[in-house]
Design a protein that fits this description.
Largest sheet: 4 strands, mixed
Oligomer: single chain
Length: 90
């Protein structure tokens, strides 16, 4: 590789501000903030709004919410239609 044309590639800590989860990965992102990681080393800190720890697709909340919506729509459409059967109408 040529020297001086590539950005620095080192460890950076990403913090999800919505749930507080932190991830240490290698990246070229730069930040003025720093954090002391579990290993005692200081790394640059990048704050994120959403990550895999809080996104509904990865947490499974999206599927549960959509399923609840389908059940509610079913109840709204067909819940009032059912009439009680009398025992002699068989």
């Amino acid at each position: 590789m040529k020297k001086g044309i590539h950005p620095d590639y080192g460890y950076v800590v990403f913090r999800d501000t919505s749930c507080g989860a932190t991830f240490r990965v290698r990246s070229t992102c730069k930040s003025d903030k720093t954090i002391v990681w579990e290993d005692g080393e200081t790394y640059p800190l990048v704050d994120l709004d959403v990550s895999s720890a809080s996104h509904p697709f990865y947490t499974g909340e999206q599927r549960r919410v959509s399923a609840e919506g389908r059940v509610a729509r079913f109840q709204q459409r067909f819940g009032k239609i059912s009439t009680p059967r009398s025992s002699d109408s068989r």
